[in-house]
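Input sequence (552 aa), recorded before submission:
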Amino acid sequence: MFSRISSAALVLTLGVALASRQAEACGCFAPPDPTVPIVQAGERILFAVENGVVTAHIQIQYAGDAKDFGWLLPLPSVPVLKLGTEELFTQLINTTQPRYFLTTTTNGACSARNFGAPTASAGFANDSGGSSGSPLVTESSIGPYDYAVLHAESKDAMFAWLTDNHYFIPTGTDATVGPYIRPGGYFLALKLKSGKSSGDIQPVVLQYPSDLPMIPIILTSVAATPNMGVQVWMLGAGRAIPRNYNHVVINDGQIDWLNQAKNYNDVIIRAVSEAPEKHAFATEYAGTSGIMVDQLDRAGRFGRISDLARLTDPVDFVEYLFNNGYTATQSPNTFFAPTLTPLLRGLVLTALPMPAGLNVSEDNFLQNLRFFLGSYRTDHPEQFVGWNPAFDAPALAAQINEKVVQPALEAGGLFRKFPTLTRLYTTLSPEDMTRDPVFSFNPSLPDVSRDHTANLVIQCGLFGDSSTSPATLTTEQGWNFQLSNASTSPQLSGVPAALRIETLSEEGAPQVLTDNKVAIGAKAAGCSCTVVEPFGLGLVALVAVLRRRRQS
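Predicted structure, token format:
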């Protein structure tokens, strides 16, 4: 789906070198939420489906030279293309990410120790068939992109047009594009405009007639990495399902509860690999979309673009941005000094570049603009020699409205329109990308919480140490681990990572393909840490344990 994509990387910059002690800005932070396992995904997509129209918000992830950026997407119909917002995915990740909590109680005198869319009425492009002999349907520009929609009836004709019009075709595309070449099919091709860099890339929004959303994962294999994460959010009238992939429920006895579930992604990888053809998704959240209401489009956010356009003084202009919700979304328990979103920061610094002699970070410059352009400039005029940019407030405000404000407001409106939000996750290696996943809905399925809790009961004795005393760990699924040491996670080898592998359809309950309750119980029964399955989850395994105890 994406050409030359690198896996998502989360980069956090904490330090700023400043030219003068006077220029330092105070910044404090807390570590990331320890209950949230870190997951890096190569693809992130939000789908909304209504009245035969799919709206897809797609985060394009790319690292490399701008001239080598090429994005080719097969589609069932001619799309309408808009700009999206990176903040949508930041908020979706923060709001729906699975969280693992461990509650600890002690028996005895323990010493203290901490444990760690618009619908079809929007109007779609008219496919006139293109000029004779040409696959072109339509071409235009939006934001940082030039784009074209092409007929998918002839691979040779499509590739020839892309080459002649300077669209980059990644190595390997020829071998994977075959399944999408067919009468009535289309391709969307994107490239960066001349003069743009990879830093200008922002998400795109596609609207196109289709009954069900699909990810062209076969084409994605061109640039995929081993065990590449794929995160999909679905908005609709009920819980979403992978229609032609299996569904896995992970065995939470494999989660490292004592260490903030740091092995969560490894458990997902293993659970998915246990499914036929390694084709399966896990549901990480399913429930009300209300958790995203007001995250992007709260009342009064962004102020008025007309007011912003009138602020011809750059200091007043930038301070208006900081005071009216244009700052980047931060983790709920992270206390950074507010920064503008990367896209907005780039727009502002293009119109108001930093003085070449000023040795501070871009964020610090914008956060303290009044100081730098006031008393600091007076005290250090040598750092501002030749600096006198022409600041066009109306032009910059118009760009901000197009690329920041409107995409955020439109994305936020989706969560008021559709009642249910589902988050699905899988990992796939290139050799496993042999079938394009299709998604649908089953409103009768129950919700899935993002929050999971296990209980640790420590038996300290009279003068025990909470870190070395024996303990019982009980997981949410009811697995009981009798631990000889309260600070050591249980180690179970050869135990399935999937509690269940099942198929989900548009109606009715899941159809279980593999139920590992008994297998997990049998493995757990022989574990040196003495894991006992709860009554009702695996009666056969529990009886086996009791028989062994009687014989001994």
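Checked by second reader. The two ends are 59 Å apart (CA to CA).
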